[in-house]
Write a structure and sequence with these properties.
Number of strands: 2
Order of helices and strands: HEEHHHHHH
Number of helices: 7
Shape: globular
Number of domains: 2
Largest sheet: 2 strands, antiparallel
Radius of gyration: 18 Å
Length: 221
């Protein structure tokens, strides 16, 4: 059981790195370089200079974020804030797109796209199944045991790409929605409330998944 969870965490960590790399690459193509890339969450273990950006390696290599350079921080004098709405939306979605593209290469387009499309429902099913939160892990563990790491990585890429498209802040889908609604909207009272509600929803669902994982590990199923 523990081995399956370790493999899953490694696959998610790699998928997170792909997501961050896709975001940074898109920003460079749009001539709005990244300033700081945080890989993971928690205390910073190391800081590396990579392509003009600071790469912060965090304790838990899951999730991450990218901070873009302002206009006065780059030689070109053009920062992320100078991009038009559609370029900002493209930048916000680029990490998820990178994950889905590589998932398609590993799993085949049909399987990867099905996995991506199913990610929203699979993420929230733990709420519907409450209080039996542990049982939701069984099909995931079975899939990890039955497949090679390449397949598990492809599935993780599809899920990371799909979940980041959820229209919730601070996920990429939520950020893209803010850009779509226009400049200044992210400073509105509604946007601030939406951010708080989105964060609460994500934290509750993630907590239920973590509780389920802990129960599974303790039971040694």
């Amino acid at each position: 059981m523990l081995t399956a969870f370790v493999l899953l965490l490694v696959a998610i960590a790699v998928a997170t790195a792909v997501h961050l790399a896709g975001t940074v690459a898109a920003a460079r193509l749009l001539h709005a370089p990244a300033k700081t890339v945080s890989f993971g969450v928690g205390p910073t273990l190391a800081t590396l200079e990579l392509g003009g950006a600071s790469l912060l390696i965090k304790l838990i290599p899951l999730a991450g974020s990218v901070t873009f350079a302002a206009a006065d921080e780059v030689p070109s004098g053009r920062g992320f804030e100078d991009l038009n709405r559609w370029h900002k939306i493209a930048s916000a979605l680029s990490g998820s797109i990178a994950c889905v593209i590589i998932a398609c290469l590993l799993l085949g387009p049909a399987s990867a796209l099905r996995g991506t499309a199913a990610s929203w429902g699979e993420f929230f099913r733990v709420v519907h199944a409450f209080p039996d939160v542990a049982a939701q892990w069984m099909p995931i563990v079975d899939a990890i045991r039955a497949n090679s790491f390449v397949v598990v990585l492809g599935i993780a890429l599809a899920k990371v790409g799909g979940l980041n498209l959820l229209p919730l802040m601070p996920l990429n889908g939520g950020i893209a929605l803010m850009y779509l609604l226009g400049k200044g909207f992210d400073e509105s009272a509604f946007a601030k409330g939406y951010f708080k509600v989105s964060l609460l929803v994500l934290l509750v669902v993630l907590l239920l998944w973590l509780i389920g994982a802990a129960v599974m590990i303790l039971k040694g199923v």
